[in-house]
Specification:
The chain contains 17 helices and 5 strands. With 371 residues, it is α+β, with helices and mostly antiparallel strands. Strands 1-2-3-4-5 form a 5-stranded mixed β-sheet, with helices on both faces.
Length: 371
């Protein structure tokens, strides 16, 4: 063995086992979610006290679980997953048996028996339009499955299942293909194969990309901040910006970093969140390692609107956002003040916030220090 062979075999071994580890995480996560869906449906149909909860079951269950990874949204998609893919149960009877050993004998027997009844027997016409369960949970993450679950047509779901597996689509690429109606475009084309061929190499997905999803990290007991992969410049700016604002004396109280925000069942991360003790409002700061673009301000406005609707407490004023761009441009610093129509109110806000020029000087100084 020479040095080149040594480095080659180490690299290939690492990638092979890393991918295997990712597949194991995704498989276990998907199995867990299917079982959660099964338990919820079982309770809704046969639970002794199900009438006491009704439509509020998932919300009450979230409060009882008191775990950030087990929430109402997850319960909703897990239930939908179980209902849409009952045949997955045929693969996980062994897993269920291990779990049921920890429950009282009567409950264990009842749950196990009902699972056999619901998943056994002949394959229905609907099930024929599903990818083989073994292949489905081995090749696709639950985030992929969530994207596909919004599709009601079983044949259309099968199409996206197959193409996601064949082309190794990331979740983002799968969503893009659904939104651009790939299924319909193939149906109208005289040569569906050529349509697929054009997008086959559209995106390469790595093991790190696959595992980098909030549900997976919560499932493993890791912090949500571990899912963030930032460039050195952006990381350094955020590190120093936090101290910079605190030292300004404008009333900033640090609240969160890489604050996870759930919008339309998708996770986003706000770089820094402060509470301003003078203005009595949240200040969301987003930093882009790029020149100013309008979509950056649109994203920040979405965060501000989210805080306005979901995070305000009695006595709070409307939240605001500050966008910082690390490259020189006409708008290196921009403020997002969503929904504020009162000009006097806006002016009062501006008096309490750092001056644009002051923030720009800070950014340029940091760039020089790093570069």
């Amino acid at each position: 063995m020479n040095f080149n062979q040594l480095s080659d075999i180490i690299g290939k071994t690492h990638l092979y086992l890393q991918n295997n580890a990712v597949k194991a995480i995704n498989r276990n996560l998907t199995v867990r979610n299917w079982l959660i869906g099964y338990y919820i449906v079982e309770f809704e149909q046969n639970g002794e006290d199900r009438a006491a909860y009704g439509e509020s079951l998932l919300k009450v269950l979230e409060k009882r679980m008191n775990d950030s990874g087990l929430n109402e949204t997850l319960f909703y998609w897990s239930r939908k997953f179980y209902i849409s893919y009952p045949s997955v149960g045929n693969l996980i009877s062994a897993t269920l048996s291990q779990i049921l050993k920890e429950l009282p004998g009567e409950i264990s027997a009842t749950v196990s028996q009902r699972l056999v009844i619901r998943t056994g027997g002949s394959i229905s016409e609907t099930d024929q339009y599903h990818t083989d369960p073994q292949k489905l949970i081995s090749a696709l993450s639950f985030s992929h499955i969530k994207e596909i679950l919004v599709i009601e047509d079983p044949l259309k779901r099968l199409f996206y299942e197959n193409e996601s597996i064949k082309c190794s689509w990331s979740v983002r690429e799968l969503r893009r293909q659904i939104n651009t109606q790939l299924y319909e475009r193939c149906g109208m084309s005289k040569s569906p194969e050529s349509v697929i061929e054009k997008i086959k190499n559209a995106e390469y997905i790595t093991a790190a990309d696959t595992v980098k999803q909030p549900f997976a990290f919560e499932f493993l007991g890791l912090k949500s901040s571990d899912t963030i992969d930032e460039k050195d410049l952006e990381q350094s700016l955020i590190n120093h910006l936090q101290n910079f604002l605190l030292e300004l004396g404008y009333g900033f109280c640090f609240e969160a970093r890489q604050k996870r925000i759930l919008i339309d069942d998708e996770y986003y991360f706000a770089d820094l969140v402060f509470y301003h003790r003078i203005l009595h409002c949240n200040v969301i700061i987003e930093l882009k390692n790029d020149e100013f673009r309008h979509e950056h301000l649109g994203q920040l406005n979405a965060y501000v609107s989210y805080y306005r609707e979901n995070e305000m407490n009695p006595g709070d004023n409307l939240p605001i956002g500050i966008l910082l761009c690390t490259r020189k441009g006409k708008k290196m610093v921009e403020y997002a003040i969503a929904g504020m129509d009162n000009k006097l109110f806006v002016s009062q806000y501006m008096l309490q916030l750092p001056d644009r020029k002051e923030l720009e000087r800070f950014i340029l100084k940091e760039k020089e220090r790093i570069e």
